[in-house]
Amino acid sequence: MKNTTKILGKFPNSYTYTKNLGERLLLNRKGKIPLCLVRPSIINPSYSEPFPGWTDSVAAASGLYLFAGLGVIKSANIDLKKIGDIIPVDVVSSAIIVATAYNMNQTILPILQVGTSHLNPLTW
Question: 79: which of 19, 22, 34, 65 is 20 to 30 A away, CA to CA?
């Protein structure tokens, strides 16, 4: 599309652009309703709930793990020192529940990042 760069502006791709649109829409229309935004990093299969390894799709990183586990992918060109900021889906779900309860009486719009790289980085 010839207008893509113009439409996206400072955003690197349509995913980040549409996330920003949604967040701004929520912020502008929330009124007095308590609201918080939870931004997870790369969501992966569960750590323990409902059972270890549970997932609802094999898209993105989950597909990579599945095919590597099955032996379809035998190697990958990665930098073992780089952070692979992945987070299990059950950790994200728990964070959403806690953030919702904690922010019930807040008047500001907290934006919470749920990931591994800040306190406990996981490298590839």
Answer: 19
- Positions marked active-site: 15, 19
- For the stretch 17-53, pLDDT in tens is 999 999 899 888 888 888 889 999 888 889 999 999 8
| Distance separating alpha carbons of residues 3 and 59, to the nearest angstrom | 28
Ranges of H-type helices in the chain:
4-8, 14-29, 60-69, 89-102
For the chain, the domain total comes to: 2
Per residue in 89-118, pLDDT (tens digit) is 999 999 999 999 988 887 777 888 898 777
For residues 67 and 107, membership in a common domain is answered with yes
Residues 103 and 77 in one domain: yes
17 with 41, same domain: the answer is no
Domain that holds residue 105: 32-124
Residues whose CB falls within 8 Å of the CB of residue 20, separated by 6 or more in sequence, listed in order: 11
